[in-house]
Write a structure and sequence with these properties.
Chain lengths: 219, 361, 166
């Protein structure tokens, strides 16, 4: 079996299995810990919890006006590379074909040249956020192996993908194989690091909003 | 024969004399040269066919330049080909044995079809002898072996999963002779004849890639020379056969074209004397000059898609089954780990209560 | 918030009267009592973006990174990962997180008690929706169990237990 066949075949299968198993394990593992009852009287109705929770999911996407001065730039940097990644993962033809064959649905994509532009911009932003993480005193103090490795493995997928579409550095099938293999590696790492925030973000914001509503602090 | 080509005897002798003096030989050598050339033997070529469909030979006969007639009448001496030769049976085999003896060490051996080794080689026999034995014997006196077609070069269709006849490519059976793989299913006619001519006239093996294919024909991918490349770059992909994109000649990547990973001359040399090639006709490249192309998934699934499951490709149902099983397993482990954590928490709390009731030290 | 079970019976002796291991054990068991699914979720969700620092007055005034709100609960995040998280057995086996030490807890006294007024701005700014202030509250409970809370609080608590008055 050649490298590309391995990457697309057994490696992907195992990676996908580890991903699903790990994510389920991690979520079940903490969600089933004790739920401590709050004996305080709720200050709002359960319906309000729901609506406030959902509102929080949206409002946390951008800092409250008084925080923007200090934190706007950094947060914008973070969001922008996320947007870039979503665009190129979900709107590039070969990716749509990949996901389509996994899930049985397809959708229209963007022209490949536009995707290339987005990819290069995303790559630049990726380098910028690493620079920020290393130079900003708060982030430097907070950062651990998980932060750097998660960055590295995502960067690997991005870099090999760009090399593959540009056909530079090695024959196409090697580049494509490395790209798919690095995606397999990302799937395997996913449940064990901070990439899990993809699953946490909406529930976490919603719970925060709901509990604030319970305390009587509504937006 | 020369007269048929419009060369008189006088003209021929004059040529030989001129050639001799050009090589600073005495004029009498000119006569000797003429004698030699008239009786000069054309290079001996033996064509052995094993587990094949005869498609490669069919392709060869359709070569535009040199044509098959020009080749076998003027350039080479095709001393054995069980499909083309007039003789059959014992006569054919003894002609082959004679040619091998007379030209030992000098003949070019062309092979098409894969070589089965299962059941002691019984899956392919001619004249009571197995293909593997015939090959080994014929290889001994060959100057070089030209494997025509993906079957002899890489095993081809018999080699594909599950390979019931235990077929192997020629290079897995013969190790001590120069081997040139002219792969393709079938190869382009001019690629076959071009490679053959190159070896016969120069006596040298051309530059080969890591799969032993002549770089001059197999050095670029179809994708590198495809006329539809601008559409690939622009992201204009045909989504189904005969849809608007397909009718506008858009890139066939999403219809499974293996052009980006297939090395061959189809996009430049093309077929039928440069008439067309599969992509130009609206069908994606199937990668027929690459090793193992039969086992690389559907011809109609894009190259970026997963490659597992029964037909070498995944279906949404299989993916669902796998992920559901993994999620279930993970959930079970997660429940267990939560249980263990809660137990430890409770024990830790009990220990603390114990310490308090005992009084801290 | 409900009082953690056992708090009323917890030793009201401040740190000097207890050994290092007892303090760590006290903090860890106190924290274990505190950590439920919600706190665990919050600790899991932190992506080390450092944005909470930009909301904390202590950080804004000093530009000293140690006042980053989520950093104030770092020993408890460490303990959670090591003791109660879904992969805790693996983490302990491979030594990926160390045990919290008594010295570490003493260093964190200043961060938890002197450098936070529970204004809750960090909880409002966190893009992941983590209630950082709630985590600090739980960490303070655990520190109290460990005898590492400010002396005045123990005196107050003892007085309350004795007289029934605040």
């Amino acid at each position: 079996m050649d490298l590309l066949g391995f990457a697309r075949g057994p490696a992907l299968k195992v990676a996908l299995a580890i991903f699903c198993l790990g994510v389920a394990w991690r979520i079940a593992g903490f969600a089933l810990l004790r739920i401590r009852r709050d004996l305080n009287k709720p200050r709002a109705s359960p319906a309000k919890f729901l609506t406030e929770g959902l509102i929080a999911v949206g409002t946390r996407s951008w800092p409250h006006p008084e925080f923007i001065g200090r934190t706007g730039a950094g947060e914008a940097l973070g969001y922008s590379y996320h947007l870039g990644l979503f665009a190129l993962v979900l709107l590039f033809g070969p990716h749509i074909a990949f996901l389509g064959s996994l899930f049985g649905i397809t959708w229209p994509g963007l022209p490949s040249s536009l995707i290339t532009v987005i990819s290069v911009l995303t790559l630049a932003l990726f380098l910028a956020v690493l620079f920020r993480r290393v130079t900003n005193p708060v982030m430097r103090m907070l950062s651990n192996f998980d932060d750097y490795f998660s960055w590295f493995i995502t960067m690997l997928v991005l870099g090999t993908g760009l090399a593959a579409t540009a056909h530079i550095g090695a024959p196409y099938q090697t580049l494509l194989a490395l790209h798919i293999l690095s995606f397999d590696a990302l799937l395997v790492w996913f449940p064990f690091g901070k990439l899990m925030h993809a699953f946490y973000i909406f529930p976490s914001r919603a719970i925060n909003g709901a509990l604030l509503a319970r305390k009587g602090a509504t937006s | 024969m020369l007269r048929q080509h419009g060369i008189s005897r006088r003209g021929f002798i004059k040529f030989c004399t001129a050639a001799a003096s050009a090589m600073a030989l005495p004029p009498s050598m000119g006569v000797a040269m003429a004698e030699q050339l008239i009786h000069a033997r054309r290079p001996s070529v033996l064509y052995l066919s094993f587990q094949e469909c005869t498609g490669c030979l069919e392709s060869l006969t359709r070569s535009f330049a040199p044509t098959i007639e020009n080749l076998i009448f003027n350039v080479i001496s095709l001393d054995y080909d069980d499909t083309l030769m007039a003789a059959a049976g014992e006569a054919a085999e003894s002609a082959r044995m004679q040619a091998m003896k007379d030209n030992f060490g000098k003949y070019v051996l062309i092979v098409d079809g894969s070589v089965p080794t299962g059941a002691g080689g019984a899956y392919c026999t001619a004249g009571g002898r197995s293909a593997v034995d015939t090959l080994r014997e014929a290889a001994k006196g060959a100057a070089a072996i030209v494997c025509v077609g993906t079957c002899s070069a890489f095993g081809g269709i018999p080699f594909a999963d599950p390979n019931p006849t235990e077929a192997w490519p020629v290079m897995a059976i013969v190790g001590d002779k120069p081997i040139i793989n002219v792969s393709g299913c079938p190869p382009i006619p001019e690629v076959i004849t071009g490679t053959l001519l190159q070896f016969v006239t120069t006596g040298k093996v051309p530059d080969l890639d890591e799969h032993r294919r002549p770089k001059v024909f197999f050095g670029n991918t179809i994708h590198d020379r495809c006329y539809r490349r601008p559409f690939y770059d622009q992201g204009k992909f045909a989504k189904s056969f005969d849809d608007e994109g397909a009718r506008n000649g858009w890139c066939l990547y999403e219809l499974g074209c293996k052009g980006p990973t297939t090395y061959n001359a189809c996009a430049t040399v093309k077929w039928n004397g440069g008439t067309s090639f599969p992509i130009e006709s609206g069908h994606g490249c199937i990668g027929c000059s690459e090793p193992g192309f039969w086992d690389k998934g559907s011809f109609y699934a894009a190259q970026s898609t997963p490659l597992w499951g029964k037909a070498g490709e995944s279906s949404p149902r299989e993916v669902l089954e796998l992920t559901a099983a993994a999620v279930a397993a993970g959930a079970v482990i997660g429940v267990a780990s939560a249980g263990v954590s809660r137990l430890r928490q409770r024990r830790s709390a009990q220990d603390a209560d114990q310490r308090e009731s005992n009084g801290d030290n | 918030m409900s009082a953690p079970a056992g708090m009323l019976g917890a030793s009201l002796a401040p740190a000097e009267q207890r050994s290092g291991e007892a303090r760590v054990a006290g903090a860890m068991s106190g924290f274990a009592r505190e950590v439920g699914a919600l706190s665990a979720f919050r600790l899991e969700s932190c992506i080390h973006c450092g944005i909470c620092a930009d909301a904390c007055h202590f950080y804004i005034a000093t530009e000293d990174p140690q006042y980053t709100p989520i950093w104030k609960v770092e020993p408890f995040k460490q303990a959670y990962k090591r003791e109660s998280s879904p992969f805790a057995p693996l983490i302990r086996l491979l030594g990926l997180k160390r045990e919290v030490t008594a010295d570490q807890l003493e260093q964190w006294q200043h961060l938890l008690f002197d450098s936070c007024n529970m204004c809750g701005r960090c909880s409002l700014i966190c893009p992941m929706g983590i209630d950082v202030a709630a985590l600090i509250e739980q960490a303070r409970h655990a520190m109290f169990e460990a005898g590492l809370a400010p002396k005045e609080l123990y005196q107050k608590a003892a007085h309350q237990k004795l007289t029934g008055q605040p």
